[in-house]
Structures are given as structure tokens and as C-alpha cells.
Amino acid sequence: xxxxxxxxxxxxxxxxxxxxxxxxxxxxxxxxxxxxxxxxxxxxxxxxxxxxxxxxxxxxxxxxxxxxxxxxxxxxxxxxxxxxxxxxxxxxxxxxxxxxxxxxxxxxxxxxxxxxxxxxxxxxxxxxxxxxxxxxxxxxxxxxxxxxxxxxxxxxxxxxxxxxxxxxxxxxxxxxxxxxxxxxxxxxxxxxxxxxxxxxxxxxxxxxxxxxxxxxxxxxxxxxxxxxxxxxxxxxxxxxxxxxxxxxxxxxxxxxxxxxxxxxxxxxxxxxxxxxxxxxxxxxxxxxxxxxxxxxxxxxxxxxxxxxxxxxxxxxxxxxxxxxxxxxxxxxxxxxxxxxxxxxxxxxxxxxxxxxxxxxxxxxxxxxxxxxxxxxxxxxxxxxxxxxxxxxxxxxxxxxxxxxxxxxxxxxxxxxxxxxxxxxxxxxxxxxxxxxxxxxxxxxxxxxxxxxxxxxxxxxxxxxxxxxxxxxxxxxxxxxxxxxxxx
Length: 487
Fold this sequence. Notes:
The chain is about 40% helix and about 15% strand. It is of the alpha+beta class. Strands 7-8-9-13-12-11-10 form a seven-stranded antiparallel beta sheet. The chain has a four-stranded mixed beta sheet with strand order 1-5-6-4.
């Protein structure tokens, strides 16, 4: 999650329900016949505990210091055993009350968001039809982080914080997930400066590897619980399922949720395919050249190459200006995951079924895939750049997308037209639409030129010419496409 200070690596509780199997609380450590401690540190043994050793831990009244040491020590040994890498240093686990954690997040984001940064971010999410003009996207993002985080690891500190109540309770998956991040950090694979990611989508590509590996290890661990290993039981009710399929909306923004969790969903399958083809050595090699976009994690067969080049071209006029150096030279890239989330949100929240949004919970990539991020208008993504503009209190943007084929570009342009139609837009000229009322009231121009689709947004039709003087209309499309587009 970009720009959240120490919260570089997180586990979102929405991904899967906690799987826990009762550990035997009878008997002392080693009563199951664990071998004696080795003379030197070995894989599958850590801080005095073997990966298959039984421990007496009962979380029903919280964890004592002794129970926590045993629980963490054995979990570290299990991460080593699955990942085939050795911890170099011990890792501490501490409790952080939800209320205090929420204050930390709120204060961090308040410090991060200057008025200009807040306005810039608002336009990004407005362009994705995820947060309308009256809504503060930064506040929506704050609420999402406050409510959907179970724990996090602090890079460079060997510290894990678990969001807990009055008593420290840690579920197995949270612990194993964050311990994997600690192992990544100790092995040099969790340095944010190494990724070179400067955009939303570039970061998702990188997280597809880091979060994918942690989630994959977590799932491999869960597979052994109750079969090969006994696992500590987590007391209390199961986390509430996120209402992706329907029903009352949660207090947090579902579009932001769907866009944010994509690395956690597709990353495990991405890492699994890498392990199956080349073992853990292949995963370690990928840290030298991590995925550059969410597209490469959604479809592991995609070539790991930089996205296609996109430039802004002619500058705006009559007082319309970019926001300086925010993002990547004033632009953001929402990526294939962001485009999918935009269309998905239309169906889930606005009953505007541009895609088959109900298929989100039907993954296609096997046992390690969680959600389905494929759709016709988002497949074939080659790049996108979104440039927000401002003129006093007025806002606009240029969103340029590039696609693998002209057919892919046509599908996206048609789906975006359908999105506008579902938002009660009226066509006022070829390629030009106006939404007269509501939170997304604006003018829009859609221009497809071969494999490129450019969307220009502004308060009025006249502003479109000032924001993008050379945008023209959609006359470069074929007559047959125009007939389909404006029927």
C-alpha cells in the first residue's frame, strides 16, 4: 500500500477465513517425541522448537509470554521448513489495540495528504468511478486500512504487530504470513527502494511477488494443519465475510478493497506456478526482476517486460495545469487490476453490469487463486497513464490506455461507453458524453486510435478542448464501430 509509512507489508483479513485446528494443550514441549535440539541452527528448527513439535498453548485467555515464545518459535521453524530458507535473526510479535492502530493510521495519512495530494488522489479514484466528487477518497482509504488489517511487519526492525483486543490472540495465518515477510526482509527481498515502483500498478506488480510468496507459504501451512501438524486454535468468532456477492455495503470502499487485494488474490497462484516450474530458486531469481504490473500477476504467462510507452503530448491551455511531480511525472497508472475493479464496482454497487461481476468469487487459476480478475474489457492491457488536471477549484483528467490489439482497445472503449450509459450519461456529439447530475457529473470524450484509447474529462464540454486541445472527436473510428457505439 503506497505511502503508508511503516505499514509497508500487511495482511488483509478479507482474503480467507481463518483455518485453525486445536493444538494439544496436554503435555509439555517435546512430549510428542521431538528430536533433541541440534548442535547448530538448521532448517525447520528455530529458537528451541522443531516444525513438527507439539506445544502447550491455549489462547482462550490470551497468550502468556512463555506461550508466545513457543508459538512464534515453532511458527518460524515451520516457515523455514516450507520456504527452505533460514531465519538469520529472531522476530518479535507484539499486540496493538485496534483503537490505537486506527489513530496511528489516521495520523499518518493526515500527515501524508497535503491539500494538493488529497485533490490529486481524489481524481484518481473518481476517474475509476470508485469515489465521486463529494467524497474524500483519502478518508475512504484511511477507513479501509483501519478496518481491514489483521497485522503487519515493520521492515528493518524484525517486529510484527498483531491488531488485537485486550488480550493478545494471534491466528496461525496472520502469524505465518507476517513471519514470511520477516524472512523476506532478512534475505534482502523486502527493500521497497529496490522495486522502482512509482505507480499504483507498479507497486501491485511488486506485491504480487512479496505478498504472493507470503500468502503461498500461509496456504501451504494451512494445508498441513490437522494432517501433518497440529496448530494452535484461535478463539472467538470467524471474521465477517466481505459482501462481494451482494447485500448491504460495508463501511469501507469496496472498489478500493478489490483493487488493493489483487496481489493477495493472484500472487499465491503466481508464486505457485514459479515454484512448480523452477523451485524456490526461481522465486529468488524473480526478486532481481520482479513483476512490473498487475497484469503479469493476473496472468503468469505474460512476458515480464516494461509496459508499453505512453506520452501525454500536447499540453492543456487556458489555466488548466498538472499537479507537478506527483506519481510518475504527474500521472498515475491504475493497471489491469484497477480497470477490472472499476467495471466490477459498477455492477456490484450501481447495478451497472458492464462485466460479469458475479464471477469475481470464481477463480480460474487453481487452488492457490482466490478471486477472478479477468474480464473482456480489462484483458489485453498494455499500459495506462492517468493525468489529473486542475484550474482553481475545477478538476479534470486525461486517461490514456494502450492495448495489445485494436480489438482489445475497441472492447475497452465500448465497455467504458456502457459504463457512462449506466451512469445516465447523454451523448452530445460523436465520442462526447455528459453526465448531468450526481456525484460524477462531468463531460467525457472517448477517442480510440488503433490500440490507444484516450478519455478526456472536465466539468463542461468546452473544458475538454482546453484540457486536451487535440482530442477532437471519435472520427478516426470505423463507421461500423460508430454504429455500434452510438446505437
